[in-house]
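Re: weekly structure request thread

Next one in the queue (118 aa):
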Amino acid sequence: MRAAGAAFEQRACAELQRAGFVVLDRNYTTRYGELDLVMLDGGTVVFVEVRHRLHATHGGAAISVTASKQARLIAAAELWLAAHPKRAQHPCRFDVISYDGPVTNARMNHWRNAFESC
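Done, posted below.
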């Protein structure tokens, strides 16, 4: 399961880089959890959560980013910004990259500005 998650994070990172995003950090761990990808999109710092669901019986991958998960991501992002004060001057947003389906041909969806911080 961990290996599959890392593979999807790598796929998402590669897709975003092809789209012009620049990697700032990967797998940044805090007491609130992990930020999968921290990227720069133009002048915007983007915190990217990567999710995969094999089956949509409980909703797709994107729906698994619940309100409590969003709160933890926001708290982790605040810590990242505190540790990188020059980047804290930039606007930021939260994106979700979701993959639904079998590992070999999961469909990717990119949800820009998927949720907002308080």
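The two ends are 32 Å apart (CA to CA). The chain has a mean pLDDT of 87.
Next request, please.
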